[in-house]
């Protein structure tokens, strides 16, 4: 599997620890159609704006893409665009397999929260000072999975890889669901897993959420 890696930052560089046939594209090796077309799959950990600018050329290659880029908005009807081009992309705000489990727990919480007549829900996320977007993509995904109004607060400090805490508080008790990323390797490992999956399985064309792909793989 020949991988085109867009971005060799703190997380992108970790991809090199899990895959061998990788060509890195950055400011000194600018990704072009002619270069990207030689690879089997494209992995991106670029900042959102940089990735967004490359979407036209990525579409032109018709190669599968696995992206963990955040802090941008997908083009309108992008899932339909991918279907028309007969190509599959996988995206994630967080490639941690542990977050797949967290999603399951949050969705279960949503199913039973009718038990709590008086409650407040909040999400607090903490990341390193170099992270540009806030709230984090993972925090926004957690709110989406919760399907309820929920305040999100953000904190930037030190070199924190990623800490997300969902708190449900009632007059009598507090319930917390928390995920802490200890090393960026786990995001790279999840992205390489997705790259293997998308190249070895006949996925339906379109834009697929990583968590949904893993859930389907595990028949959850």
Automatic annotation (TrEMBL):
Q: What EC number(s) is this enzyme filed under?
A: 1.17.1.8
Gene3D superfamilies from the entry?
A: Dihydrodipicolinate Reductase, domain 2
**What is catalysed by this protein?**
(S)-2,3,4,5-tetrahydrodipicolinate + NAD(+) + H2O = (2S,4S)-4-hydroxy-2,3,4,5-tetrahydrodipicolinate + NADH + H(+); (S)-2,3,4,5-tetrahydrodipicolinate + NADP(+) + H2O = (2S,4S)-4-hydroxy-2,3,4,5-tetrahydrodipicolinate + NADPH + H(+)
Organism superkingdom = Bacteria
For biological process, the GO terms are: diaminopimelate biosynthetic process; lysine biosynthetic process via diaminopimelate
Question: Which Pfam families has this protein been placed in?
Answer: DapB_C (PF05173), DapB_N (PF01113)
- Name this polypeptide is given: 4-hydroxy-tetrahydrodipicolinate reductase
């Amino acid at each position: 599997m020949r991988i085109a890696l867009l971005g060799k930052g703190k997380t992108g560089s970790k991809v090199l620890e899990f895959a061998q046939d990788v060509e890195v594209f950055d400011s000194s090796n600018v990704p072009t159609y002619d270069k990207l077309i030689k690879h089997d799959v494209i992995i991106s950990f670029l900042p959102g704006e940089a990735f967004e600018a490359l979407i036209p050329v990525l579409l032109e290659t018709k190669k599968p893409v696995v992206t963990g880029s955040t802090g941008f908005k997908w083009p309108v009807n992008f899932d339909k665009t991918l279907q028309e081009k007969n190509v599959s992309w996988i995206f994630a705000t967080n490639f941690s397999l542990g977050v797949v489990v967290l999603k399951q727990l949050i969705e279960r919480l949503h199913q039973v929260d009718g038990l709590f007549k008086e409650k407040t829900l909040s999400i607090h996320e903490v990341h390193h000072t170099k992270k540009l977007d806030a709230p984090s993509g993972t925090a926004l995904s957690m709110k989406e999975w919760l399907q309820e109004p929920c305040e999100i607060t953000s904190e930037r400090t030190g070199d924190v890889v990623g800490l997300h805490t969902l708190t449900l508080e009632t007059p009598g008790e507090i319930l917390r669901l928390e995920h802490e990323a200890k090393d960026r390797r786990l995001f790279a490992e999840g992205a390489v897993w997705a790259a293997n999956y998308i190249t070895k399985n006949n996925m339906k064309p379109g834009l697929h959420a990583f968590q949904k792909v893993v859930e389907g793989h595990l028949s959850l």
